[in-house]
Amino acid sequence: MIQFDTVHKRFPNGTTAVHDLSLEMPEGGVTVLVGSSGCGKTTTLRMINRMVDPTSGTIRVGGKDVLERDAAELRRSIGYVIQQSGLFPHRTVLDNIATVPLLLGWGRRKARARAAELLETVGLAADAGKRYPHQLSGGQQQRVGVARALAADPPVLLMDEPFGAVDPVVRTQLQDELLRLQKELSKTIVFVTHDVDEAVRLGDQIAIFRTGGHLVQCASPAELLARPADDFVADFLGAERGLKLLSLENLAEVPQGPAPEGGAWTLVLDEDRRPRSWRSTSGDTTFPVRPLRDGDSLLAALNESIASPAGLVARVDAQGALTGVTSRDDIHEHAARAHGTASVAI
Ligand SMILES: Nc1ncnc2c1ncn2[C@@H]1O[C@H](COP(=O)(O)OP(=O)(O)OP(=O)(O)O)[C@@H](O)[C@H]1O
């Protein structure tokens, strides 16, 4: 969908922001650009919709050289979300979302109906539409920013640190929402972030840049974590690289057995067989239990197996009823296997 072919950007003051970049961003996938401050991520993103033009090289969107397209028309056909949402403060939320449809000449009624539909899509209540941006929380404003970018249903979305200004809990919620939306919409997304965990969570591929606009490695999160190209990438991914890899594997394949009876710890269930707590045999100590489902990650399982006094993870079905328990040893074994597979088989 988006192809960079030896693209170079040198600003008039002599700064090279992007150095001979060749990169493909596949249709319907999320490509995350990461790297330290000033390494050229934003410039790369902005060259896609011609907010910045390259010094040399070619960028194609849908097979067409962007320099052969009218810049304003190109920009309207590509969704753009930035940090702090970039909403117009004096326009209502609904009118903000309707911006591009109105520019495209949709007519007020149709544009507003589309905006109202999108409010729901991004998880906001209908009455938020009548408010002004400053009357919303930072997280809600970011949702409006995403809705505005989606308004004319563009095939491509550019997102420049869209969740950088919100607290970690809201950030995780916004990431979840984006993943949910992406499952439905399959947009071609280019996403800039400083945050490696965000990149691993959201990316189908991750491109790591270093200062001077050099692309160092572009690979799937699993490949990157298992086989960083060099020390720079390994350092950038951080000391918890192994644990991050476990966040990509789920529990489904790990065996489970019946909950233990007569040991030091008993799993207490409610009348619907939902785990409530771990209770010591003497009965005077209880520990909280955090049951996991097949779709939860091996990292969550490892964490829970360490927190659980019995060293066991309670597993539940979609209704929350107990299906069995898994031991710390089984989780370790699968974790080691996941590492082995990722580092040789990719
Ligand atoms: N208009 C401009 N004129 C001159 N230099 C610029 C211009 N825009 C960006 N730069 C420089 O180009 C380099 C890359 O900037 P860019 O904003 O693309 O980096 P970034 O990786 O997105 O950084 P950050 O993570 O801090 O946002 C930096 O050295 C920056 O100072």
From TrEMBL:
Gene3D superfamilies, per database record: P-loop containing nucleotide triphosphate hydrolases
Keyword Nucleus: no
Pfam families xref list: ABC_tran
InterPro entries, A to Z: AAA+_ATPase, ABC_transporter-like_ATP-bd, ABC_transporter-like_CS, P-loop_NTPase
Domain of life: Bacteria
Record keyword ATP-binding present: yes
Family per record: Belongs to the ABC transporter superfamily.
Protein name: ABC transporter ATP-binding protein
Organismal lineage: Bacteria, Bacillati, Actinomycetota, Actinomycetes, Kitasatosporales
PROSITE patterns on file: ABC_TRANSPORTER_1 (PS00211), ABC_TRANSPORTER_2 (PS50893)
GO molecular function term, any single one: ATP binding
The entry's keywords: ATP-binding, Nucleotide-binding, Transport
Residue intervals of the ABC transporter domain: 2-237
